[in-house]
Design goal:
Blueprint lengths: L8 H27 L5 E6 L7 E2 L5 E2 L1 H13 L2 E6 L2 H9 L5 E6 L2 H4 L2 E3 L5 E2 L17 E7 L3 H17 L3 H11 L10 H9 L2 E7 L7 E2 L5 E2 L1 H13 L2 E7 L2 H9 L5 E6 L2 H6 L2 E3 L4 E10 L9 E4 L2 H7 L8 E4 L2 H9 L5 E5 H10 L5 E3 L5 E10 L4 H25 L4 H4 L2 H7 L1 H38 L9 H14 L6 E8 L2 H8 L1 H16 L4 E7 L4 E7 L6 H14 L2 E4 L2 E4 L2 E7 L6 H14 L3 E3 L2 H22 L3 E10 L5 E12 L3 E3 L1 H11 L2 H22 L6 E4 L10 H12 L4 E6 L8 H17 L2 E7 L7 H5 L4 E4 L1 H6 L4 H16 L3 E5 L4 H10 L3 E3 L7 E2 H11 L1
Parallel strand pairs: 1-4, 1-5, 9-12, 9-13, 16-17, 16-18, 26-27, 29-31, 31-32, 32-33, 33-34, 34-35, 35-36
Antiparallel strand pairs: 2-3, 5-8, 6-8, 7-8, 10-11, 13-20, 14-20, 15-18, 15-19, 15-20, 21-23, 21-26, 22-23, 24-25, 28-29, 28-36, 28-37, 29-30
């Protein structure tokens, strides 16, 4: 080996000789270790991975439950192997002997029939997690580990190990809970009914605060409480839904008097001292903050027998009297007065709360004082409660302190420490560091001179370059939309007397398809050609382009034409000049559409461009803007702004349209339809808002709202014994690519049940860009069917029908679109198509239903073709839920 090349030959021999015994010992040790019998395994199922249990890259698990089971395994002489999985998977594995024990579950009578639970608990449930529906609100939910009911020997072994573990480590469970949950607040503030009634009966609670130390607790110039205690008071009001009537005092004696005489019910910043509290008829909450105290001196230090300046408080008396004589200690009303006494020589050391000392010194009012920041003592802070108050108040405050958590309280305490450098005065900086201050100012002065000179040289060049970037399209190098908006405004101001103008926007039809098929260069070439053509005309001013949208803008001089017909002819000719483009050996036809907005007095260029864009979307191929387009756009925008509030206010109503058996004319089902009863827009039909919801994605939330309402109604009717028929609910194609869709549907199925629920999807639900996305959609359908949902394909035959999906999806119902029924009226060929489609559905094992039946002749024709069910106005129109409930009483 290279690192031993410096050893001489005799040294190598000696080293080799010496290493032989160690080698022999090592081999012997290896043989001994390998000969020791391996520990028996303890296979533990864990079901909170990702929530309360985490796993690192090496595969190690961390959590309160896993740590407990590792220690338990050590005492039982077993090697613990964790088997993660869902709750259902863990229960299945335990029943079939694939694991030995499940950890971290709540004991219930139902589970005790199949499991044997540990004698000692292994912790308690974190309020924020769901222990499979077994958490009891406002109660302590203890966690146990469990084995199979018939495995009594293993439970005796583990119970014995648990007894030894807890006996030798009595605080082990508390330590684990503090380690994993104590450093964060409770996930939810859980109050009992009695505690909630207490808060309702006490909407206002009087709270006294000792405010004399900034930033911990102090009063501003307006007499309002500020600091950490103000933050805490605001948090209590927000979380508990009460109002705190604050009483401000300057010392604790006055605050205690307020409690004794009933002027206050709680003391926000009481020092945690149980003996003092008992002597003054005061209850103390859990400590929510620890205050640390330090000393402040002048820069030249303090003498051997210093005079101490401090605030009157029990901690001060107890700590300082152990170190100094009573005549050395002098009391002051506020922290500022203590520091001022040290600054002017009346005292030598100020004994103050650490944050208060730092805050006041760094404010700059005492530049001659310093603190080393060393903690000399500490004091826990709690909330004091008058013993005249009901005991519920103490429990509420303890829960609130736990809910906020130590980190939240620390954030409040450190809030005013942030940005102290920004609040520090220049005077204090100069006093502390005069040489650095002067040097820095001189250096800054010369740097500013240099930068000013350099800036004057670069300014024009940079502005020119920046303006060029702003004003030009990055693909074509031509002027862009931003340039056009500015230049058009300027042009119009100088040519107001030359006649009437309009803003014109030209768009390339099917731009996305062109880009996907032929590439972005085609769009660039088209825009360049259109801009060059416009440059040659006399009536087009300031042409500009926008490649990302495939648009051309220009200012049109309308007086160059006698009427709109002549203008339309000119624009049509303009499109003809650019309608063909050569791509390799292909000549591709390009279609354009044009939106025009005439400029009127008071209408800005920016608004006119927006109006031209609205007209562009209506153009076929040329359209002039009118007020109706703006109203339509505003209506759609209004819908989008109201959608979320409408959902939270439950403005969307579920209506039902019955489905009936063509043979018996009895109601055999219904379709859930949505109506929007908006308090702002009135009663809206689906066609007025569903397209907008489809385009902005809100349709997925509305689908879940509808589905949940229907499943809840069906479950309620089933529970009360009312008549039930299967109900179909539409599901948007957007769900097919929605994350966690299947998980959410599984939760709904578990809670409400999937029977009597049918999911309707259109063929477009499987019309995706890639085979992978299509396969995923098919997978979603199979999973929904496995959950127990019936599946139907809606509007079948309304367009291009991909018959392969009938084979790929486990469909239960084929719903024939009404357009096919209308087309078959008097048309023998379409009637034959309709009949064969019904036969196809039956051959594939599906129930066939036809929608849109409005005439008896249609019903008779469908019945003769063997169609199973029908839906339409001939039988019943959609109706509200209450009316449908009454309808069912007489039609099933």
């Amino acid at each position: 080996m290279e690192e031993y090349e410096y050893i001489e030959d005799k040294d190598r021999f000696f080293a080799s000789f010496i290493s032989i015994p160690f080698l022999v010992c090592g081999l012997s040790l290896q043989f001994t270790v390998s000969s020791v019998q391996a520990r028996p395994l303890l296979r533990v199922g864990i079901h909170h991975v990702g929530t309360d249990i985490t796993q690192d890259a090496a595969g190690n698990f961390y959590g309160m439950e896993t740590d407990f089971m590792q220690a338990l395994g050590s005492y039982a002489g077993r090697e613990v192997v964790f088997v993660p999985g869902t709750w259902e998977e863990c229960r299945f594995r335990l029943e079939h002997g694939e694991i030995d024990v499940i950890s971290g579950i709540v004991k219930t009578p139902q589970r005790e029939q199949t499991m044997r639970f540990s004698r000692l608990m292994m912790g308690r449930a974190n309020d924020s997690r769901d222990v499979h529906g077994t958490l009891l609100p406002h109660r302590v939910n203890q966690l146990y580990f469990a084995v199979r009911r018939d495995d009594e020997a293993l439970m005796q072994e583990l119970d014995l190990a648990a007894d030894q573990l807890i006996g030798n480590r009595p605080y082990f469970v508390s330590h684990l809970y503090q380690l994993y949950y104590g450093q964060r607040g409770s996930a939810e503030l859980r109050l009992t009914e009695r505690e909630q009634r207490f808060l309702k009966s006490h909407p206002v609670i009087s709270a006294v605060v000792v405010a004399r130390e900034a930033p911990f607790a102090y009063v501003d110039k307006e007499g309002n409480l500020q600091g950490t205690m103000k933050k805490l008071a605001d948090r209590l009001e927000r979380d508990l839904g009460i109002k705190l009537a604050l009483v401000i005092e300057q010392d604790y004696a006055a605050a205690q008097e307020d409690l004794d005489k009933g002027r206050a019910q709680i003391l926000l910043n009481a020092e945690w001292d149980a003996s003092w509290a008992a002597a003054h008829n005061t209850d103390l909450s859990a400590a929510y903050l620890t205050s640390y105290y330090t000393t402040v001196t002048r820069r030249n230090g303090a003498p051997r027998a210093p005079r101490i300046a401090c605030l009157q408080k029990r901690l001060t008396d107890r700590v300082l009297l152990e170190r100094y004589e009573a005549n050395q200690i002098h009391y002051y009303a506020t922290a500022e007065e203590c520091l001022r006494a040290v600054s002017n020589g009346q005292a030598d050391i100020a004994f103050l709360r650490q944050e208060s000392a730092q805050y006041n010194i760094w404010q700059g009012d005492f530049p001659d004082l310093v603190t080393d920041g060393i903690v000399t003592s500490s004091q826990d802070i709690a909330i004091g409660i008058s013993d005249q108050m009901e005991p519920e108040l103490l429990s509420i405050l303890d829960k609130e302190i736990r809910f906020i958590g130590p980190n939240g309280i620390f954030d409040y305490a450190s809030f005013y420490d942030q940005g102290l450098d920004k609040r520090r005065s220049i005077r204090s900086l100069f006093y502390a560091y005069p040489q650095y201050f002067i040097t820095g100012l001189l250096l800054l002065f010369f740097i500013l001179l240099l930068l000013t000179w350099r800036q004057s040289q670069m300014r024009r060049s940079h502005l020119k370059q920046m303006q060029h970037i702003i004003d030009t399209d990055r693909y074509t190098g031509l002027y862009n939309r931003s340039w056009f908006k500015y230049e058009a405004s300027k042009y119009l101001k100088g040519h107001e007397a030359q006649g009437h103008f309009a803003i014109v926007e030209i768009g390339i039809s099917r731009r996305d398809i062109l880009v996907e098929t032929y590439g972005q260069d085609v769009i660039v070439e088209l825009l360049r050609r259109m801009e060059a053509t416009l440059q040659k005309t006399e009536w087009a001013k300031l042409p500009a382009v926008h490649t990302s949208t495939g648009r051309v803008f220009f200012l049109l001089h309308m007086d160059a034409f006698d009427d709109r017909t002549q203008l339309t002819t000119a624009l049509t000719h303009l499109m003809h000049l650019n309608e063909y483009i050569s791509i390799g050996h292909l000549v591709v036809h390009i279609a354009f559409h044009i939106g025009i907005c005439p400029l009127k007095p008071g209408l800005s260029v920016a608004d006119a461009m927006n109006h031209a864009n609205l007209a562009l979307h209506e153009a076929n191929p040329i359209c002039f803007y009118n007020a109706e387009m703006q109203q339509k756009a505003e209506f759609q925008s209004r819908i989008e702004s109201l959608q979320q509030g409408a959902l939270s206010r439950k403005e969307f109503e579920v209506w039902y349209q019955p489905k009936y058996d063509l043979a018996t004319r009895k109601c055999i089902g219904a379709e859930a339809l949505v109506r929007w009863r908006s308090r702002e827009l009135g009663f809206l039909m689906p066609g007025q808002f569903i397209p907008r919801f489809e385009s902005n994605g809100f349709i997925t939330q509305l689908d879940f709202y509808m589905l949940t309402h229907v499943m809840e109604t069906v479950k309620e009717r089933r529970t009360t014994g009312l008549p039930i028929v299967p109900v179909s609910v539409n599901q948007s194609r957007l769900h097919m690519q929605e994350k966690n869709y299947l998980a959410y549907m599984q939760r709904l199925k578990t809670y409400y049940g999937a029977e009597d629920i049918e999911l309707e999807l259109t063929e477009t639900a499987f019309d995706f860009d890639t085979p992978e996305m299509r396969e995923h959609a098919l997978h979603v359908m199979h999973e929904l069917h496995e959950m127990g949902f019936r599946l139907s394909i809606d509007d079948f035959g309304s367009g291009y029908s991909d018959l392969t999906i009938l084979n790929a999806i486990p469909l239960d119902v084929m719903k024939i679109d009404r357009s096919l029924l209308l087309a078959s009226r008097g048309a023998k060929r379409m009637q034959a198509v309709l009949a064969r489609m019904i036969d196809l559905g039956h051959a594939l094992g599906m129930t066939v239903i036809c929608e849109g039946i409005e005439e008896h002749e249609q019903e008779e024709m469908l019945r003769s073709y063997g169609c199973d069910h029908g839906q339409g106005y001939l039988y019943s129109k959609p109706m509200p839920e209450a009316e449908f409930s009454s309808f069912l009483e007489h039609h099933i």
